[in-house]
Amino acid sequence: MPFAVVMHAPGDPDVLKFEEVTVPQPQSHEVVVRHTAIGVNFHDAYVRSGLYNTLSLPGVPGIEAAGVVEAIGANVTDFRPGDRVAYVSQSYGAYAEKRVIGQESLVLLPPNVSDEVAAATLLKGLTAQVLVQQVYRVQKDDWVLVHAAAGGVGLLLCQWARHLGARVIGTVSTPRKGEAASRAGCESVIFYRDEDFVPRVLDITAGEGVQVAYDSVGKDTFFGSLQCLAPCGHLANFGQASGAVEQFEVSQLFPKSNSLSRPNIMQHLRTAQKFREAAASLFDALSMGIIRTGQIQSISLRDAAQAHTELESRERTTSLVLKP
């Protein structure tokens, strides 16, 4: 029988248990995927800790993986056994050696994208694609603020925005992360532990502010990000690594005619067509060198708890994948 990482209750990383599971036969629209690499994301940590109460327990966490199609349902037309595929899905179950999943969640992998790159990059890369091309379409000469610029999504955002001609400002915690952000295209790097990023951003932009702020930190940076916006600027709050944002009056957006979004990436990718179009854009960006993934660290699936411990370490700069 195959194995999977099972959660019986939320908590610290040690709640992730490696156990035997049963994989059902695929229904008419489903396929069986044997995983070769599994993505590790902050979403997984939020689910494990209980911050996101979205996984029915006991259950198998994980929403992103790459692998090989082993079997298909009677009505599956887009895939066949042997195909290399990847997915991001709201249907949990990726922390497993194999699983059943609907064909609409899958995308074919091009030959020049490895399983490890796909598993480490698909969700982060699609998030970056949605943010720079859909939530706010970055234009040449825009000032762009990226918080956690050396994080998994942050590095991709910086590279993609710079390719589009933007002037990128990144916030980071350490000199090592500052170097990574600079390599990713940040024109200016702010060490938020040493200085208040708001006056620094306004100084860098000669008082203008930024056209868009991409904020995955949440509570600690949200109101500062608002202060950094230029007239008609946009704040995309797409995460809450420091905690949930406090309530605020929408009238605070009025003085500079600012706008705010809380993007749900899955809504932007809610159909197979939208998902595959965004994935094609991401794979093109990877192929053309517009974005680069950097180092990927592989950890055994049975050691998922270790992966979560490393994920939540602020000193980590590599992407993580689990290997069955």
From TrEMBL:
NADP is among the record's keywords: yes
Domain of life: Bacteria
SUPFAM superfamilies listed in its UniProt record: GroES-like, NAD(P)-binding Rossmann-fold domains
Domain Enoyl reductase (ER): 11-322
Keywords from the named record: NADP, Oxidoreductase
GO cellular component annotations of the record: cytosol
Gene3D superfamilies: Medium-chain alcohol dehydrogenases, catalytic domain (3.90.180.10), NAD(P)-binding Rossmann-like Domain (3.40.50.720)
Entry GO MF terms: mRNA 3'-UTR AU-rich region binding; NADPH binding; quinone reductase (NADPH) activity; zinc ion binding
Keyword Metal-binding carried by entry: no
Protein name: Quinone oxidoreductase
Listed InterPro entries: ADH-like_C, ADH-like_N, ER, GroES-like_sf, NAD(P)-bd_dom_sf, QOR-like, Quin_OxRdtase/zeta-crystal_CS
Pfam name, any one: ADH_zinc_N
